[in-house]
Design brief:
This protein is α+β, with helices and mostly antiparallel strands. It has one domain: Beta-lactamase. It has twelve helices and twelve strands. A seven-stranded antiparallel beta sheet has the order 3-2-1-12-11-10-9, with helices on both faces. Strands 4-8-5 form a three-stranded antiparallel beta sheet. Strands 6-7 form a two-stranded antiparallel ribbon. α2 runs antiparallel to α10 and α3 crosses α6. The radius of gyration is 22 Å and the shape is globular.
């Protein structure tokens, strides 16, 4: 008689626990050994080489703790400045996940009604003759135009301030006159502009500037020290220079202003702070369990057709195999955050190369831990090689390696 489903599940859990023991330094929670570090570095540098990336940074979370943080390549190729843990990269669309958390924090306090007409909070947004709700905006079903999927109309007016779009209300002028690309709930239509509208609703519902809400309820409580809006008019040390590939050559990218889309792609930080955000999601530190369940539930269209996008997060799998992720792509950056909350495992990557495939870059590291990522293969994996390297670790050392830690 073969093993039962329960026995297989228990075996996988035991194998994952053993993996953590084998890859961790004794006495330091979830900190990789030198040999495990070599496996991760090899995967990272090989994938960077395949993609001809200028610079990148990596964060690995094991057993709910940040186990590894490192920079690779160059933050400024022309000045020969290396990527370090101080290097700041744009988050790009991972900013949407932050915005989702801010919205759901208000929701669980009864301050933001996800089913209410968004114009109740933001009357400055024109009537589109259709009910658009915060829920629609959170899951990209509001029909708001993105960049090239419909007519994009910018409001023409004069502003009294030099940087008017620091205001999420005035930032509506970048798209609010545009017609809908579909009726709300009819299609999944990814849109950064929709998250700008959502941030305006958050600002009004929370009675505090959107950026201040994010800082006071997410950045400061988590102890993040570098995450901030990427306002181009401010001098911010350690910004990475961006690069793009053009006619076969990798050249410096444009230094575009992203202040107008703060909620949809306007934050930046070092790799540490992105890893801290991912760790907080794994630990459920930002919203209540019932709110998290709603936030990570893939949303269906009005036709009942399923999607893989929830509220500000892409979702794959369920139960023990739940995978929560988001990518980011804009000038100067490519990013990815992928976590397996039930396995307390996650990987975050940031690159200053616009030709970076961040899914493949993060995937190269996830594949180093196939048992934690729910993957199996008939081939010998990096993990199996690592297991042989560390199989002499004792159970006592494993217990020490997995004890709680307060290190960032």
């Amino acid at each position: 008689m073969g093993p039962t489903h329960l026995q297989l599940t228990m075996a996988r859990a035991a194998s994952a626990a053993l993996l953590l023991c084998l890859l961790c330094i004794p006495g330091s929670a979830a900190e990789l050994t030198a040999k495990a570090t070599a496996l991760v570095d090899k995967a990272m540098t090989e994938e960077m080489g395949k993609q001809a990336l200028v610079g990148a940074a990596l964060g690995v979370i094991l057993d709910g703790e940040i186990a590894y943080l490192k920079g690779y390549g160059l933050a400024d190729r022309e000045a020969a400045v290396p990527v370090t843990r101080k290097t700041l990269f744009r988050w790009a669309s991972i900013s949407k996940s932050v915005t989702s958390v801010a919205a759901m924090q208000l929701y669980e306090k009864g301050l933001l009604d996800l089913g209410k007409d968004v114009r109740t909070y933001v009357p400055e947004f024109p009537d589109k003759k259709a009910l658009i709700t915060p829920r629609d905006l959170l899951c990209h079903q509001g029909g708001i135009v993105h960049y090239t999927n419909g007519e994009l109309i910018r409001t023409q007016r004069e502003y009294e301030t030099e940087n008017p779009f620091e205001s999420v209300i005035l930032a509506l002028d970048t798209f609010k006159e545009s017609p809908l690309v579909n009726q709300p709930g009819e299609k999944f239509s990814y849109t950064t502009h929709g998250f700008i509208l959502l941030s305006a609703a958050i600002e009004r519902a929370g009675k505090e500037k959107f950026a201040s809400q994010v800082r006071n309820r997410i950045i400061l409580p988590l102890g993040m020290t570098t995450m901030r809006p990427d306002y181009q008019w401010k001098t911010i040390p350690n910004r990475a220079v961006g690069y793009l590939r053009k006619k076969g050559k990798v050249i410096p990218s444009t230094n575009t202003d992203v202040s107008w889309k703060l909620a949809g792609g306007g934050y930046l930080s070092n790799i540490d702070d992105l890893a801290i955000f991912a760790r907080a999601l794994i630990h459920g530190k930002l919203v209540k369990p019932e709110t998290e369940k709603l936030m990570w539930t893939p949303q269906k269209l009005k036709s009942s057709k399923p999607t893989t996008y929830a509220y500000g997060f892409s979702i794959n799998g369920m139960g023990a195999e739940l995978q929560v992720a988001h990518n980011g792509a804009q000038e100067k950056t490519r990013t990815r955050m992928v976590i397996f909350p039930r396995k307390r495992f996650g990987v975050v990557v940031m690159s200053n190369s616009e030709h970076c495939n961040s899914r493949k870059l993060a995937g190269a590291i996830v594949d180093t831990f196939p048992q934690l990522a729910g993957k199996t293969s008939g081939k010998t994996s990096r993990l199996e090689t690592g297991n042989r390297l560390f199989q002499k670790r004792s159970e006592t050392l494993c217990a020490r390696a997995l004890r709680p830690s307060d290190r960032p």
